[in-house]
Design goal:
It is a single chain. By secondary structure, the chain is an alpha+beta fold. It has 2 domains: 138 residues, ATPase, nucleotide binding domain (Nucleotidyltransferase, domain 5, 2-Layer Sandwich), CATH 3.30.420.40; 163 residues, 2-Layer Sandwich (Nucleotidyltransferase, domain 5), CATH 3.30.420.40. The chain contains 12 helices and 18 strands. The chain has a 5-stranded mixed beta sheet, sandwiched between helices. A 5-stranded mixed beta sheet has the order 13-12-11-17-18, sandwiched between helices. A 3-stranded antiparallel beta sheet has the order 5-4-6. Helix 5 packs across helix 12 and helix 9 crosses helix 11. It is flat and about 60 Å long. The structure holds adenosine-5'-triphosphate. Adenosine-5'-triphosphate (ATP) binds next to helix 6 and helix 7. This is Cell shape-determining protein MreB.
Length: 342
């Protein structure tokens, strides 16, 4: 992966191909796409019917021959052809116009920390479909840290935790580079899965595919801590619609196991870090980014486990693409270190 600010400033477009959402930043225009990474396809003809939120609205409601698919899984493109078609559909003429003005379009894409070469190649191929002749790959952790406004280029330690849908990535950065990092395959999806399993085993209730969002709001609303939330779903045995009262404290217990894996990853990164940097971190605290950073109580849980101050970024879900955007706009200046004189 590259982190040449000069090369990045020549890019026209910055892309974050997330497991849950696809985001595109166009130079001089800002964020032009922020849509679910979903495509609805007619399996008889192979034609694309809808992408993004339109496809999301169809999930669980389609006839047999229409499938809603996720071309990106775990932060990696798993279906290159479908991801290319989805991205082309999402950006449509907004980028094509820019490309006509600047045919040697360069793109920057952020990839999960330690992405395999095959995942890097897949991302490059997807971006090539937009007409990019050259693709710069940037570690999500660095892009997110820049997007949160952390002073990554300074010789001071900063710690970022990016809680996405498929994974959580943790890093300590200093002088524009990663000093120690960890990635665990636990994110918002695993937390949702724990909630679904809890409802299924304790209440014998199956949730509709789009039933989790209102459930998030009801269950994690701090004003309703320790209360009961009404949840409607389908009875596992009879198949009939049923409403149950769910104790929010029990649901919080159910999501404790996936969250423990996140706390362990933070602990491992801190242990790997040189003591001087840990002292910096004790002063500066931990920055939380990614959509799952919005999970109420996650910041307090990390604070209690580490004894360090935890802050949630202003727009946690779009930090990575906005950080990449700031880099292609040339807003991040490299630190010039004077050569030591003998
Ligand atoms: N208010 C909220 N409360 C709880 N979880 C939330 C909230 N808003 C978003 N999420 C979760 O955030 C996740 C999406 O985060 P994000 O947009 O960072 O994912 P992504 O970048 O597509 O994923 P990844 O980084 O794993 O590729 C989803 O799992 C979603 O359920």
């Amino acid at each position: 992966m590259t982190l040449s600010l000069e090369q990045l400033s020549r890019c026209t477009v910055a892309v974050d191909l997330g497991a849950s959402r696809t985001r595109v930043y166009l130079k001089d225009n800002g964020l032009i796409v922020d849509e679910p990474s979903l495509a609805a396809v007619n399996s008889r003809t192979g034609s694309l019917i809808a992408v993004g939120s339109l496809a999301g609205g169809m999930a669980g409601r389609t006839p047999e021959h229409i499938k809603v698919v996720r071309p990106i899984s775990g932060g990696t493109v798993v279906d290159i052809d479908m991801a290319q078609r989805m991205l082309r559909f999402l950006v449509n003429d907004k980028i094509r116009r820019a490309w006509r003005r600047k045919p040697m379009l360069r793109a920057a894409v952020c990839l999960p920390h330690d992405a395999e070469p095959i995942a890097q190649r897949a991302a490059v191929e997807v971006l090539s479909a937009l007409g990019s002749r050259r693709v710069e790959l940037v570690d999500t952790l660095i892009a997110a840290a820049v997007g949160c406004g952390l002073p990554v280029e300074r010789p001071e330690a900063t710690m970022i935790v990016v809680c996405g849908a498929a994974s959580t990535q943790v890093a300590v950065l200093s002088l524009g580079a990663i000093v120690a990092a960890e990635k665990v395959a636990i994110g918002g999806d695993a937390i949702d899965y724990a909630v679904i399993q809890h409802l299924r085993s304790v209440h014998e209730l199956m949730l509709p595919s789009q039933g989790l969002h209102p459930l998030h709001l009801a269950l994690y609303d701090p004003a309703r801590m320790g209360c009961e939330a009404e949840v409607r779903g389908r009875d596992v045995a009879t198949g009939l619609s049923r409403t149950v009262l769910v104790n929010t404290a029990h649901v919080r217990e159910a999501i404790h196991t996936p969250l423990t894996a996140v706390l362990d990853a933070i602990g491992r990164v801190l242990r790997e870090c040189p003591p001087d940097l840990v002292a910096d971190l004790a002063e500066r605290g931990i920055m939380l980014a990614g959509g799952s950073a919005r999970l109420p109580g996650l910041d307090t849980m990390i604070e209690q486990a580490t004894g360090m101050m935890v802050r949630i970024a202003d727009n946690p879900d779009v930090c990575s693409v906005l950080g990449l955007g700031a880099m292609i706009e040339g807003k991040i200046k490299p630190l010039h270190l004077d050569a030591a004189r003998s």
